[in-house]
Amino acid sequence: MEHTHHEVMEKGYSGENLDDDGREKRTGTMITAIAHIITAVIGSGVLSLAWAVAQLGWVAGPVALMAFSVVTYITSALLADCYRSPDPITGNRNYTYMDVVMANLGGMKVKLCALAQYSTLVGSTIGFTITASISMVAVMRSNCFHKNGHQVECNTSNNPFIITFACIQILVSQIPNFHKLSWLSIFAAVMSFVYASIGVGLSMAKVAEKGHHARTSLTGVTVGIDVSGQEKMWRTFQALGNIAFAYSFSAVLIEIQDTLKSSPPENKVMKKASLIGVSTTTLFYMLCGCFGYAAFGNDAPGNFLTGFGFYEPFWLIDLANICIALHLIGSCRVFTQPIFGFVEDLCAQQWPESRFIKNEYVVKIPFLGPFYLNFFRLVWRTTYMILATLIAMVFPFFNDFVGLVGAASFWPLTVYFPIETYIAQTKIKKYSSRWMWLKILSFACCIVSIVAIAGSIRGLAVHLKTYQQFKLKN
């Protein structure tokens, strides 16, 4: 694979500063990989889990959370083995998810993978922008409720906050590549633990309150009391999409693995990091989903930190929502990097002589050291964030949007391509018991994705009927 314009800076490096592929030596460790995974996984998805468990109930809710967790870990381990081809330890590196598919499957499947991956990453960018703005609005509303009482409407437009988040992202997006993002991911991972812990703590306090009687059941929202039979079915489908979104990190797994040092072998480190990352997030998801449901019952809000099931202590709710917004700065950056890298590499190959695309200018920043400025990177990344922001302003529906992105991406990226590339690379015999089990898993997850997509599209359609452009009431 050709070197991109990111590697132009590396030409003056001596051999000991280069990896086996001639690129700058990778310095990532299991700790930085776990930070990237947690930053990618514990995101806005955690906020909708109380609502998701409320739709499914005490039995199906926790079972669904565990099932998605187990599937995500199994398939992430399969994908980690495909980072190098044909041998998982000594083979050639695959720098991106698409490279993995190209090395093992080829043909039309490469284009389908690109479509699935980049659609998911664009959708996640928009979802994070919506969520960050909702959290910033929640801080304003929390202070308004504290000052004026809980009966006041305290409506605030999302749009100024969507624009604020976009401006921050435009600045942060100028960090050249994944290898420079470890500090941002570690910071974002800490933020995610803080707000998830606050959410769990507030839910536990509400459950422990004297006279607290939230109506819960083994099967979730009750037909005939809370919803109609048809609405129950659609909500169940949408809840599955929300849980799928909460576990999505396969789209950036290979890019995270490409930051790791080559010794010990990257696939072994990535499997351990995936196990720790997914186990940690599952624990938080169980706590947030189950305690959130216990606190709010069948009336659980779509976003349990901004839906105002909690009003006090207002400063703690403010802190949680500020942490969400700060975390999403990191999450959004992790999810946009593969898109940025793909377009920039493509343009560098298409126009190899263009100085606008290739030239890097060193800008010395006090206390931070040299910063490499590239004008194409500046223009393209800024344009991308502006377009994502405009879409977020048009469709600011949290639950429906995260459900749709999660449902659409879960089967192709988390299940189908990891299984197919692993079968191809390890040459598993057709119709062997291992081959059959992997295919059954893929088929079952495909069905789940289809019904979850249907539920989320239906939710979006219902909300669009009643939504007035740029006059959203929170």
Automatic annotation (TrEMBL):
Stretches assigned to the Amino acid transporter transmembrane domain: 26-459
Annotated transmembrane regions: 33-53, 59-80, 118-140, 183-205, 275-296, 308-329, 378-398, 404-424, 436-457
InterPro entries: AA_transpt_TM
Location in or out of the cell: Cell membrane
Protein name: Amino acid transporter transmembrane domain-containing protein
Composition bias type Basic and acidic residues, residue spans: 1-10
Superkingdom, taxonomy of origin: Eukaryota
Organism: Protea cynaroides
MF term (GO), any: symporter activity
UniProtKB keywords: Amino-acid transport, Cell membrane, Membrane, Symport, Transmembrane, Transmembrane helix, Transport
A GO term from the CC aspect: plasma membrane
Keyword Membrane in record: yes
Keyword Cell membrane: yes
UniProt-annotated stretches for the region Disordered: 1-21
GO biological process, one term: amino acid transport
Family, similarity comment: Belongs to the amino acid/polyamine transporter 2 family. Amino acid/auxin permease (AAAP) (TC 2.A.18.2) subfamily.
